[in-house]
Amino acid sequence: MHYAKRKRGTMEIMLEILKSCEDQCGITKVIYGAGVNYLVAQKYVDQLVKIGALNVKTDGERKYYVITEKGKILKGHIEQFLKLRQDLDEVRSKVIELLRQ
Amino acid sequence: MHYAKRKRGTMEIMLEILKSCEDQCGITKVIYGAGVNYLVAQKYVDQLVKIGALNVKTDGERKYYVITEKGKILKGHIEQFLKLRQDLDEVRSKVIELLRQ
């Protein structure tokens, strides 16, 4: 059963960032965890802070981010979303295969 | 939780036709079961016959259609597809709602 691999999008990147910040994370950990560059990482982190999914802590000049309760709920929904989307892709492929024969 | 209701598409129409022909159906039953006009009904039925999801029986001048084993498998996959798509719409709405706050 073959079906096209999707390009990594907003949902996948957000999930990786939320996972990276389950304990606490600096921007470098976010960059490596999500596999994005500094600007992209900071854009997502700022958005997640803005909606209250991450809290900011400062330690001298360094900033740290920690997932909030809302962030944990968001993480759960995103994981569910990605799982369902994959299941949907698989069953769509099965239907298409049957319709072709 | 609000999310846009989808327009009825190919998957929904095929499912209704396959359901209508679980015992045996003439084209009239298909038309009423799937809520489509004669031309659309015949187009779908012909495609389902072509791929082996429906068998044709003739009784004098009348044609009847009966779901095949392949048709039952297709029906199951389509049901699964529609259920997953609805679940995905719901969880997508939840994520969007959290991202907006």
UniProtKB/TrEMBL annotation, chains A, B:
InterPro entries: ArnR1-like_HTH, WH-like_DNA-bd_sf, WH_DNA-bd_sf. Residues 7-84 form the ArnR1-like winged helix-turn-helix domain. This is ArnR1-like winged helix-turn-helix domain-containing protein.
